[in-house]
Amino acid sequence: MTSVWMRYLSGADIDSLGVTHADIVGAVEDVLVDHGHGDVVFEPRTHLVPDNGGKGHFNILRGHLSAKQVSGVKVVGDFVSNFERGLPSEMALILLLDPETGMPRAIVDGTMITEARTGAMTAVGAKYLARPGSKVLGHVGARGTAWWNVVLLDSIFDFDEIRVTSKRPESREEFGQRLSAELGKEVRVCADAASTLDGADVLVEASRLNEPEALVRKEFLRPGTFLVPYGTISALELTLLDAVDKLVVDNWRESQSGNPRFGALRPQLNAGLLTEDGVYAEIGDIVAGGKPGRENDEERILFWHRGLSTTDVAVANMILQRAEAADAGTMLPYR
């Protein structure tokens, strides 16, 4: 019988490959073109909620990239209080599979990939939907994905002003200091969401709430603003969509999938305030050229992305190709 081996890539292995910000954004933008052309297969995400007193849950995402002939499954935990143990709130593993034989090709640490592909989705959305020349970024949240949101957005817009906040003073201060050192510019640390978001050109909400709370209000959406909300628990004023000119999603089916508590716009969905008729487009249609994105400087645009399994597979596959070329990682016998 033929021996089967698969490659294991740890976080340290991935760090050694020299993957750039542009590489990650490019992989995500490329797979969104595939979405727009219908060249992907992906299943609804599912949740595994252990009997652990509400400490956290797991998300299971599955996707296939037809043009690249790779399939994948990601399991990612979402445990808000992990900071108390010095651990990331989201830790993930990605299994890449050969769709012709079912053979496992690689097991990849998906923690950085989850954070980076989320930030890349925010950045690609802004590239097509934010007002050109946007100069002020307001960002709520300081978890792992927040870093990639700010760094990748700034790589596109080179903001004049960056404001950040989070629930815990120590986390927002440390976040601001790290960003300032990375970006070589002042990052303003704010005490609350209102002072962070009000008057910003690009608004990102990546909070970690336990219960819905209206941190993002209609009055913050000035003409020409671009808003990206994706906290697990909604932080939006219930009637906020009244102030939005265009609403774009990553995928309408995924917007409705999973536990009805989870998702930035789930209260609007549950109350019937958001329906398919209210969605302007999926982001893949815009990136692939099927629909225009921003059409004038006055539009208030909201982009809700819940996370596409295909972006995980795309970034992991790009990393695997780098690892194969460099013979990085550890080869494990499968059978």
UniProtKB/TrEMBL annotation:
Pfam families per the UniProt record, alphabetical: OCD_Mu_crystall
PANTHER family listed in its UniProt record: KETIMINE REDUCTASE MU-CRYSTALLIN
InterPro entries with a match to the protein in the record: NAD(P)-bd_dom_sf, ODC_Mu_crystall, ODC_N
SUPFAM superfamilies: NAD(P)-binding Rossmann-fold domains
Domain of life: Bacteria
Protein name: Ornithine cyclodeaminase
Taxon lineage: Bacteria, Bacillati, Actinomycetota, Actinomycetes, Pseudonocardiales
UniProt xrefs under Gene3D superfamilies: NAD(P)-binding Rossmann-like Domain (3.40.50.720), ornithine cyclodeaminase, domain 1 (3.30.1780.10)
A single cellular component GO annotation: cytoplasm
